[in-house]
Amino acid sequence: NLEIEEGEFVAIVGTSGSGKSTLLNLIGGLDNPTRGKVFIKDKEIGSLSRKELTIFRRRNIGFVFQNYSLMPVLNVYANVALPVTFDKGSHVDREHIRELLNELGLWEKRKRYPSELSGGQQQRVAIARALANKPALLLADEPTGNLESKTAVEVIGLLKARHQKQHQT
Length: 169
Fold this sequence. Notes:
The protein has helices at about 20-25, 50-60, 75-90, 95-105, 120-130, 150-165, and strands at about 40, 45, 60-65, 135-140.
């Protein structure tokens, strides 16, 4: 059993292959548990239809994947705005996107494509994209794995600041 209260900032650590990514995929509704249930915001996510789960995830959960999962045909700005456009169409909070990109040192790179960025820059784009919808829950699978130590400290600082500002879990 695992219970995380709303607004907590939690790090799950373990050796390679110990199930950290699997746990995040279960919490995020990307995988279904073979036993047990996952509740987020008092909803048992396994009971939601595929469409309901997709909408629930889009509106409540931000994901930072280990492999970034950026769209290669979209520039940095469009990659970050993508989850917002899925949910709100053209009603993108452009100032919020600009703020995220500035905080992550990416504003000057907003017109570049993922293939034109370093691994660390791609990771920061993935983090900005995960924060774009101001999710209640942020799931990050090794969010600083490809960053040099100074940038890693800055990214953790940003995640903590967003956690406090947005009361994100």
